[in-house]
């Protein structure tokens, strides 16, 4: 009987249950009722708005964090959706660091700014076109009139035609000077607009919390580097037990921890690209280094982070040590960006399983 039951096709409930388990495992979420309920909401309405938002956040393999779930209306650590989050510890209440949703808000504002600047650029182009058409029309009128007066002078030797030509030339000169002024102003505005567009594009490719390049910028550079034929190594770094920091001290303190670790990675790997990949994950692209040299460089940054002792800003109470684990992989023949990142991610799992605060390389 038991054997027959195993061979029976799974019903919708069984498939949903397995999908929820896979969802929690993929995003490294603990199996608690809050996370299960969120996964159930997403997967049981696969075409709904919540599933669409999750799809956008996780595009490219990014994993959800507890903060993402909170911002999407889910609950974490027993806090029901719609209720207020637990009050942070007193030391964290007065922190000036931005709330967890502020970086995402600034990113949206940056994208809106780019759209506004693009609209202004289109207006500038149209303005240039109008000015050029106006100059062309004026030049045509002047040329036609000049030919008529020259014909009159040749046929009748009319001295009045000379006066008319002088008048027309003066009028045309005034129009040319006016057009030059308009073009000079338009050129100045276009240069300012170009500068603002460059700033906006840079903002859209930079993580607003840490100042590091974001996932979009990293993937662009990574894709180009894959085909350049140089030795490459990529590391995925994940802050150890970061959720407990947010739960105990609040997101403002968590943000400061992320900024401190970002700075340590940037300083320790200053010749290589360090980016924030999402949540508490960072990636490092080592160019021109062997796996051994990349491991040595990254381990120096890991040791520097582990040696620091963090304190709460207001009370000077110790926060304790913060560490990160990392998976490191070297580019092999036939690798794609996805396969190389996949190997680094598997090595990150190994580092976590071996006790954290370490780097596993392959």
Comma- or semicolon-separated keywords:
362 residues, alpha+beta, Alpha-Beta Plaits, 3 domains, five-stranded mixed beta sheet, two-stranded antiparallel ribbon, 13 helices, 10% strand, elongated, disordered N terminus
What report would you give on this structure?
- Helix 7 packs antiparallel against helix 8 (160-204), helix 10 (242-249) runs antiparallel to helix 11 and helix 11 crosses helix 12.
- The chain folds into three domains: 12-86, no CATH class; 104-204; 215-361, Alpha-Beta Plaits, CATH 3.30.70.
- The protein has 362 residues and is an alpha+beta fold.
- 62% of the residues lie in helices and 10% in strands.
- It has 13 helices and seven strands.
- The protein is elongated, with a radius of gyration of 31 Å.
Short overview:
This protein has 362 residues and is of the alpha+beta class. It has helices at 2-7, 12-26, 33-44, 49-57, 66-71, 90-93, 102-156, 160-204, 215-226, 242-249, 251-268, 291-307, 337-353, and strands spanning 232-239, 273-278, 281-287, 310-311, 318-320, 324-330, 359-361. The protein has three domains: 12-86, no CATH class; 104-204; 215-361, Reverse transcriptase/Diguanylate cyclase domain (Alpha-Beta Plaits, 2-Layer Sandwich), CATH 3.30.70.270.
């Amino acid at each position: 009987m038991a054997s027959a039951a195993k061979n029976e096709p799974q019903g919708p409930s069984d498939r949903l249950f397995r999908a929820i388990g896979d969802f929690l495992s993929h995003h490294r979420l603990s199996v608690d009722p809050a996370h299960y309920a969120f996964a159930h909401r997403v997967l049981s309405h696969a075409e709904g708005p919540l599933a669409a938002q999750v799809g956008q956040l996780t595009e490219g393999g990014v994993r959800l964090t507890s903060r993402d779930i909170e911002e999407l209306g889910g609950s974490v650590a027993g806090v029901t959706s719609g209720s207020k989050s637990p009050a942070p510890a007193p030391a964290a209440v007065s922190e000036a660091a931005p709330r967890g949703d502020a970086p995402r808000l600034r990113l949206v504002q940056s994208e809106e700014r780019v759209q506004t600047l693009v609209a202004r650029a289109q207006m500038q182009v149209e303005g240039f076109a109008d000015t050029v058409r106006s100059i062309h029309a004026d030049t045509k009128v002047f040329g036609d009139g000049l030919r008529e007066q020259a014909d009159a002078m040749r046929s009748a030797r009319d001295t009045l035609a000379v006066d008319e030509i002088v008048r027309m030339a003066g009028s045309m000169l005034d129009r040319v000077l006016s057009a030059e002024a308009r073009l000079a102003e338009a050129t100045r505005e276009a240069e300012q607009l170009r500068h603002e567009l460059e700033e906006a594009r840079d903002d859209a490719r930079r993580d607003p919390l840490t100042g590091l390049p974001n996932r979009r910028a990293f993937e662009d550079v990574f894709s180009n580097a894959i085909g350049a034929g140089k030795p490459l190594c990529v590391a995925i770094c994940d802050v150890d037990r970061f959720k407990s920091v947010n739960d105990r001290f609040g997101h403002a303190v968590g943000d400061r921890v992320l900024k401190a670790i970002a700075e340590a990675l940037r300083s320790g790997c200053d010749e290589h690209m360090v980016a924030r990949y999402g949540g508490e994950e960072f990636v490092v692209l080592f160019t021109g280094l062997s796996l051994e040299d990349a491991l040595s460089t990254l381990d120096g940054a890991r040791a520097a982070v582990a040696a620091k002792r963090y304190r709460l800003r207001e009370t000077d109470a110790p926060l304790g040590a913060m560490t990160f684990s990392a998976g490191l992989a070297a580019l092999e023949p036939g690798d794609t960006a996805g396969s190389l990142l996949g190997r680094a991610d598997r090595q990150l799992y190994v580092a976590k399983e071996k006790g954290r605060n370490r780097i596993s390389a392959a």
